[in-house]
Design a protein that fits this description.
homodimer; 5-stranded mixed sheet
Chain lengths: 325, 325
Amino acid sequence: MARYQMGVDLGGTNTRVALVDEELKIRRRLQERTPKNDGQQIINTIIRLCKELLQQEGLSLEEISSLGVAAPGIVDNGRGIVVYANNLNWVNAPLRETITRELPLPFYLDNDANAAALAEALVGVNQGLQDSIVITLGTGVGGGVISQGKLLHGGYQAGGELGHMVIIAGGPLCTCGRRGCWETYSSAPALQRMARAAAQEDSSSGLWTACGNNLEQLTPKQVFLLAEQGDKAASSVIERYLALLATGIVNLVGIFKPEQIAIGGGIGGQGERITQPLQQAVNLESYGAKYLPNTKVVSTALGGDSGLIGAALLGKYYEGGITLG
Amino acid sequence: MARYQMGVDLGGTNTRVALVDEELKIRRRLQERTPKNDGQQIINTIIRLCKELLQQEGLSLEEISSLGVAAPGIVDNGRGIVVYANNLNWVNAPLRETITRELPLPFYLDNDANAAALAEALVGVNQGLQDSIVITLGTGVGGGVISQGKLLHGGYQAGGELGHMVIIAGGPLCTCGRRGCWETYSSAPALQRMARAAAQEDSSSGLWTACGNNLEQLTPKQVFLLAEQGDKAASSVIERYLALLATGIVNLVGIFKPEQIAIGGGIGGQGERITQPLQQAVNLESYGAKYLPNTKVVSTALGGDSGLIGAALLGKYYEGGITLG
């Protein structure tokens, strides 16, 4: 009877829900702005969007096999709670209890980056691989790891915080309180910060004209484009950006030696401008690179939908006892 | 019938073999210097020591359930080979084939750090834990990870290279070819290098007298002792050493969120002088520390025997399909 899986991608900006069919494709979706600083409102929005989705498709709950939620921060599927999500201002939010009261379905909860890694491993670019990683380069640096055929959750389901790996001890202060986290060098805001500093040093750089002399408006895309056009300041920013991005990537290769790493998020949209230099660094710097197949670096396949699809597939993964690859 | 497990700890300096009984304790052991730069001689030594051990105990092969070898570098249990071990000068050494020809036993092969992590998880300080890490601070920085009840091997059984995680991009050149690896700050030679530099800067430091004015002879133990006695140069060396050691440890907490990390190796012998400041850093800096139980930092229980015991227990782990914790 059950033919669909429902997924919720709960982001700091948008809440998105979708129905995924038996071919693991999105059948229908809805989205709304995530209410600010009001946990009950967020939960109400999730419930309402799910019900609307069922209604639009003329489906009853019996036709839905499970409901999965991908949330930012630290989650605990066992207890069905979001332990801590700083951009939702949530501590110990009882998602399973409150949502399943209105939508009595098998309910699964995971970190949004893990959901993205699961989706890429089940229906995306990492299909068929036992060891793969997805890295998203956006407001932060997020990561999800499939290790030995399983999602890496770590103890207390709180591992996988790849973006807060320090790559330059004593570097810039991170939102997490540490200094020199990978995220402080490889997120979109980090690239913008580096580009603004480079523009300040070089008044003749095209960086100024690209943003209409308002450096706060400078986008990562503009910096990549200028670098490609040979602008000196932009080129040196991109060179340093890619070198430090590669430092984190090669660290992960040493720790997990995945068959493939897929790069997504806004900056991931730069495609080969990113993946090609990262591949070079991996080939050159990985431990034992001469004696082993190299980890491949590619772009994600599912783009911004990976978290949403992954959320819907959580039930399949948890109930099926699936080993990937 | 089979009552014992045999283990081989193949080190760059010594080759050690042991029989482990049903209570998972070492019953008898033998050791010899590892022959230099001669793969066939190394294999012959292993075979001879194993046979001697059986003879001394008056045991036949039927009484041995399995033979496990812990080797440095990258190993491949599936193919039964050491893929690459730089300090043995080995590439694709066919251990299973050559050893089982003389000792027809179920044969298992793993990395020495993984064997140590397995031993601490089965019979040492990490017993009963699903997520634990062993870090050895010696000539290098070695690490073995138990993640979600399983040894972390990574793809191609080549992951777990924790010591080659870069913590200061552009730092000192590492033997692996990268710059600023954790190992270049947290190994025993790294501490000695930092202490020599500090002594050069401060001719009145006790570091000079401790080593009879021969800085090449300065030991980590002496530096720790002087720091405790208040020597200024030694104190600042130890402070920096511990801070960078903590950087790597907190990185691993973010990635794996283990319930416990056990510190071993020569410098690990400093006990609470090491574990107590590391615990402080973990409590303060771990991601989401306020909302989660803290990872504990302790000393290893099995000391230098962990690799040897772990080697002997490989069969139990692989054949038993054991999930730890």
